[in-house]
Write a structure and sequence with these properties.
Elements (H helix, E strand, L loop, with lengths): L1 E8 L3 H8 L2 H7 L3 E6 L4 E10 L2 E12 L6 E9 L5 E13 L2 E13 L7 H24 L1
Antiparallel strand pairs: 1-7, 2-3, 3-4, 4-5, 5-6, 6-7
Helix pairs in contact: 2-3
InterPro entries: CO_DH_gsu, START-like_dom_sf
Organism: Rhizobium aquaticum
Pfam families: COXG
């Protein structure tokens, strides 16, 4: 599965980049995130509860950040396990473009899933992934504005 989208955030690029690298900000923005801890400069550990159709699971996993394109872009890769519900792994490439006092955030995300969740069908999984991405950016933008 691959998703590509763009969102306009009402904040300067430097502030958006800083917020995208702040574990507390990310924890508050990620739907279902119970914990998010930075274990090194490039690695985070997360625990997220997700419901996809009739399957609800707690996923634990690691996210690795690549900030080599900072402050214009960065990439992340992660994988997690939800026990009998299955697994998820993937990554995202994010590009930030300044537009006056606002920032255009463009992303391309790829994900692979397996286990019970994969049996639910691609339509349900894709629509859930899109909703989660929209929720994340709505939460992120709202927290950044406040």
């Amino acid at each position: 599965m691959e998703m590509t989208d763009e969102i306009r955030i009402k904040a300067p690029k430097a502030l958006v980049y800083e917020a995208l690298n702040d574990p507390d900000m990310l924890k508050a923005a990620i739907p279902g995130c119970e914990s998010l801890e930075q274990v090194s400069d490039e690695e985070l550990e997360a625990k997220v509860v997700l419901k996809v159709g009739p399957v609800k699971a707690t996923f634990g996993g690691k996210v690795t950040l690549d900030r080599s394109g900072a402050p214009d872009s960065f990439s992340l890769k992660g994988e997690g396990s939800g026990g009998v519900a299955g697994f998820a792994k993937g990554g995202a490439d994010v590009v930030l473009v300044a537009d006056g006092d606002e920032t255009i955030l463009r992303y391309t995300a790829k994900a692979e899933i397996g286990g019970k969740i994969a049996m639910l069908g691609s339509r349900l999984i894709n629509s859930t992934a899109q909703k989660l991405a929209e929720q994340f950016f709505t939460n992120f933008s709202a927290r950044l504005a406040s």
